[in-house]
Structures are given as C-alpha cells and as structure tokens.
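SEVERITY: medium
COMPONENT: batch folding queue
REPORTER: lab tech (J.R.)

DESCRIPTION
The queue accepted two submissions in a row. Attaching both inputs and their returned structure tokens so the on-call engineer can compare them side by side.

ATTACHMENT 1
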Amino acid sequence: MNGASTTSNSNNKTVYLIRHGQSTFNAAYAINKVDPWHFDARLSELGQTQANDLAKHAEGLNVDLIISSPLTRALDTTRRGFSEVIKQKSIKVQVITYHSEHVATSDDNGRFRSHVEKEFPEFDLSHIQERWWYMPEDVRTDEKIDPEEYFKTIGFKEPWEHLDKRIQQFKDYIMDRNESVIAVIGHSEFFHQLFEKKLPWFKNCQILKWNPFTNETEWVTN
C-alpha cells in the first residue's frame, strides 16, 4: 500500500478505525458502573501508555489522512500515537464532530471549543461550533446555561435517530475524501453502531481495517 491519493469514485480506499486509549471514565466506571462525572474524560495512565504504544503501528499504516473526534481522549490519542508520522510525512489531521461518541454519560459531553483549542493548539478546530457536541437546542443556544450542570441535574441523552444521522454523515465524509488510506480515531459506541452491532466492541487503541465501499473488515491488532 503506497498511500497515494485516489479519486473518491475508486473502491481502493482503506480506513483504519482506532478507538482512543483508556479514559479516566473507563477506569472508574469499570469498578461500580456508576457515572463518575468525568466530563470529556482524559486518558488514564494506562490510556496514555496505550496511546504511546499506538505509535509502533502508526508508521506501518502508511496513512495520508488522520481524522479525530474533538473529544479530549481522542485528540490526545491522536497526538501521542501519530505525532511522529504527522511531523515526518506532513500528514493532515482533520477534526470533525460526525464520529464523536454517542452522548449518554458524562464523558460523552465535550468541552467548549475555545478550551480544547488551548490544550491542543496543533489541531485546527476553527470550523467547529463553541458548543459542538449533542445537547438540547435550548441549552445550546442559551449561553447562561452550564451544559455540565444541566447534564448532572436534569440530564439528556442523544436520540438514536440523531446518532444515525451522524453515522451517515460520517460515511459520506469518508467516501467523499480523495485520500486512499485514512486513520480515524474515535469511540466504541459510535463504531459499534456504525457496523450495526455486528462486530465485537473495540478495545482501547484496537485497530480495525475497513473498506467503506465493500464493508469488509479485518482486525489489525488484538
């Protein structure tokens, strides 16, 4: 695989789907299945190690585009796992919201774009809304409402039909890209729903090779 770009009407497209490293939410929730209120959870120590180890596979994937969700655990995994590839090969990184996690628990909520930009200045988030993740429209448009406090006290969950729409937007985005080899850093529930629950849940930093034209898949790592 030489990484050369092809036009989007070719079926010679390989997408590597990669789940982020373990988050602090993942670690805490595994203990008692109670939401620990880790909004936009960061990588745990184990997750940082997993993301650093991802770099061992990154160069061999020979990608010509990297796509990340705007959630902190995905951006940090991208930074740790692909930083050398990005520098050495001047690979583009696109941060998009289509494949952000399904909003159901605290960690699925994002942070204001302006806050994320300060922590990850190497990534361009200028095209993303300030309150970019799913929330009820009245919460999104009322700047006096604190989304985290609202989620804690009143609560909300992204409707499945809203997620279905994002999945289709994600597929369309991938198919419209001219790059032939793409790495996507994302999230377990989104990937699970992308394949209509027919594949096992992704482990942290696990890599799946996917042909979006034929829907053929192959696990690259265990």
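ATTACHMENT 2
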Amino acid sequence: MKTSLKKLQKFTALRHDRRAQKQHQSLAQDELERATQDMNDMRDCYDRLLSAAAATANSVYEFSESLREMGDCLLEKTALNDDEESGFNLLCFASSSRRKVLLMLGKVQFELQKLVDGYRSHIFQTITIPSESLLNELRIVEVSFHR
C-alpha cells in the first residue's frame, strides 16, 4: 500500500511539474509576442516620425530657396535703381530711401534663409539621424529574434 501511495505521489508531482512547465512556456511565448508587438509599434512610430521629418525638411528647403530668390530679386532691384540714379533730380531722396529699404529687405531675406537652413539642419541632427540609428538597431534585434 505504501508503494502504491508513493507511486501516486510521484505521478501527481510529475503531472504538476508538466503543468508548471507548460505554464512557463506559455508565459515565455506571451512575453515574446508582447516584445515583438512592442518592437513593431516602435518601428511604425519611428517610420512615421522619419516620414514627417523628411516632409518638413523638404518644405523647409523649398521655403529657403524661395527666400533666396526673393533676396536676389530685391538686391537686383536695388542695383537697377543705382544705375537709374546716375543723374541728380528731385526724386533722388525718395529713390535713395526706397533703395535703402529694398537693400535692407534683401539682406533680411538672406538672414531668414540662414535661419531656415539652420532649422533644416537641426531636423536632420535631432530627428532623422537618431531615428535612422534606432531603426537600424531594431532591425538587428528583429534579425536576432528570427534566428
């Protein structure tokens, strides 16, 4: 009777160990699935961030080019006014003031262009480059998961 009781206890313990092992495997599988989903969510988030940064950088580039063209146009207009003022006339004072304003506006356009170009550079330094680096690290982790 003692031997059959011991056999029953061993069987029960073995059965309990199998259940615990299955639960452990199930928990590990759930954890792996959660980690995979988290990585996918992170990759999607950074892909969207990179896309938005690229669109912003492109728009900023176009804006910068427009500022440069406007500055060039204003400075050309100033140069044309200099050629027209070779003789003295009563409108000389008005033309001189207009020329100074156009010259100042042209210079401001170029200063704005420098600021906008700096902003574009900061987009690359603070968003694009770190995000691409993180995405590359995620790809490496994904490859190691699949192995």
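NOTES FROM REPORTER
The longest helix spans residues 2-84.
No errors were logged for either attachment.
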